[in-house]
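User: Modeling request: complex.
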Amino acid sequence: MTETEEKRISDKISKENVSNELIKIFGGENVSQRVVDLYPYSYDMTECEAKMPDFVVLPENNQQLVELVKFCNSNSIPIVPYITGNNVGGLTIPQQGGIIVDFSKKMNRILHINEDMMYALLEPGVTFGQLKKRLDDNYPNLRYSYPYAPPYAGVVGNAILSGMNNLSCKIGSMGDSINGLEVITANGEIARIGSCFYGKEEADVDSWWCRYPMPDLMGLFVNWQGMTGLVTKCAVQLWPNPAYKKTFLALVFGLKDVASVIREVGKTDVIDDISAVSTEVVKMTVEIPEPKKVPGEPDFAALFPISGKTKKLLDAKSEIVEAKFEELKKKGKNIIIADVDEFAKIFNLRVRCHLDLPAVLLSLVEYSGLTWFGSYAPIHKLEELIEQVNIIFQKHKVPAFIYMKIMKSGHYGIFRPIIRFNKYKDGEEERIHHLLEEITDFCISKGCIPYKTPTWMTAKLRKKINPGWLNLFEKIKQCMDPNHIFNPGRWNT
Amino acid sequence: MTEIEISDEIMGKKFIELAFDHCIKCSTCKYSYKEFMMSCPSGEKHLFESFWASGRIRTTRGLILGELEWNDDIKDVIFACPTCGACMDACQAPHADYIVDIIESLREVAVKEIGPAKNQEKLIERATNPEMWNPYGEPNSNNNDLKEEYNLPDKAEWVYFIGCTSNYRQKSLRDATLRFLKKANIDFTLIDEHCCTSPMLRTGQVEKCKEFMQYNIEKIEETGASKVITSCAGCYRTLKKDFKKFGIEFDFEVLHTAELINDLINENKIEFKSDFKKKVTYHDPCHLGRHMNIYEIPRAIYRSIPGLELVEMERNKNHSWCCGAGGGVKIGYPEWSLEISEKRLREARETEAVILSSTCPFCKTNLNDANEKFNFGFEVLDLIEIIDGLEYKVKN
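Assistant: Request completed. Predicted assembly structure:
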């Protein structure tokens, strides 16, 4: 339940004066404190506790945001950045109230696409669908990498929170794809990070081409969940869009066998992306809402997209992958390989949503609630993780929904048990939370590191983390945000 | 099903329950799916999350759960939406087809709690006035004059359900339809019709709907007709889709004029003797397109007219931008209603068409109002009016 009763926003200034100042900065039509307007920002798809903001503002430019940050810093008023609220971790739920800065409505411009150096310079509100359309219409030789997120999730949010994408086996985490950032820090200064750091004035749009080799200040903002400053521009890498593409679908029998299959195929170093999901998820995708496991069925389905600039290159990659599958079969792995395009035609075209990203995956939007334990995982532990998490799912009578990725050919992986639920069924949130908590405890014990973390999860993490890391983290947070205005409460700060 | 308690008196109870069972606010409803274009007039105007479909679903939840209070602050969130259905088309979740139903059901509850949006009460005051029976406040036309003028029988195979907008605001469209039906030798008649209930349904003022529906059914049945035809996308949607929601059963078939014309063309029964050498762009009425999935039939007709060059606006068919008149917006938010139309007219201008055409008198009204207000210089014509201006022969 969302608590909608009014409370003090600051000890230093009245709410009325805050309102007046916000209206002065943003204009009346871009500020709201009507409860009905605040309400949708008070909670998200997860079971995380709902909390009301005091205001929502729609910024248009940096000048407004500089004034906002200075004002909030003087009066210790929380600022919570918001793009589309699609994260699965309660990241934009205002833990301590304050001002929601909704970037998605007016700061959503694609500022520049550099075709030669292959990057896009974006405002925070740009969505995957928007970027996809721009590239398809104007730069068909370039592609971005898209996650299994709705088309209207934010590109910048995904990048600065190290989200997933469909080139993960090749490029790794999206956090690695950032060329540069523009941020507003607590004193209202605008800092540019990356090759765009030259110059006293506004950076040239063609100067956002690289992140290194200066001291990497990007780390002060990437993965910090908006706790150290407001990101106002972000340059992300684009990739050549090869003419020839193909996706292998592997149906893998044997619960744990999928782990070695995806690890081994990842090492072939010719795969764009590897994602494996429980068979139940495939059934969800083809509109079976509460799938049951049938004996004799494969346990996992895995997708292996490959691409090539020429047909010859694609064929060569195919040959390598097929040889690997044969080798795995000879080693006793029970795998059925199919061309996913043909599979979709025969069984259900909805399967195509996994291929034609950005798209909506029915399995993720079917209910009123969705939550997960999304983690970076040591891939040598995947077998244990799959086995035990499957048992936990069964114990709680929830269909297993495990999603895994192999990142950067196998340097690390993603292990993400996902839970769909009805937020408004009595006791369901609590039931699901218990399940998730059990999964979380087990996965953390195996070394998994959750990302886009809700506060209850970071509370668990803090008990396990090396004290030196925590002290350094706290010192940096204090230094970057002395008055605790930037998304306070995240990571239990 | 959810365990949320909703009064059985609410007609849209099952749709409100759907609001609790689905929607994670993924934002897919905000833009046209896979085309990634702006599609929601309400969200694009007001911008805060509360004004998009997912926000309205949240508001529904908040109000039913008692987390939000019923007060005048929430009126715009509930009523400032033309219910064009762009959100339904974009959404990929199981509740997609029912988003407009959810919004209309929320309006039904809102009317009980805080009353309708400004001026929307006039729709029901006028429509329930025994001197009027229409939302325009015009003296009721029992259509006897028209029956006489067109020499129409009391009993016939077809009933032409004129609809209030055609009968009281767009008479040339009505007359064009009458002439077409006569020329096509359709055995038809008219009834002393009352409002089809579309304006009531769209604005949550549903109390009298069943009465009106039953009345119109009785009148149609008195004629012995097996088919009802209308030129109004709003009446068409209401007769074909909404009557069933109220448990009103009937045996006759409901057609839009475009469907009849298309059938005649397909049967080679219409022979055009003159041409129409103009560039035309077609505006899909929401109530015919997204609400009833009719996109190709009108286009096939335009293409069959000699000389007519049909050009598409950037957003067309299921991705069309709404004209801004529906959902009670024309009367509740008149200035904004024209702003929405103005955006459509800008898009039409990009096509270099000289005629902006549609298949709905209410779209025609609003597009024409904006055309005049913003001096676009289009000729706004309904499809049936274009046909009426041609020489043609209908073979039996």
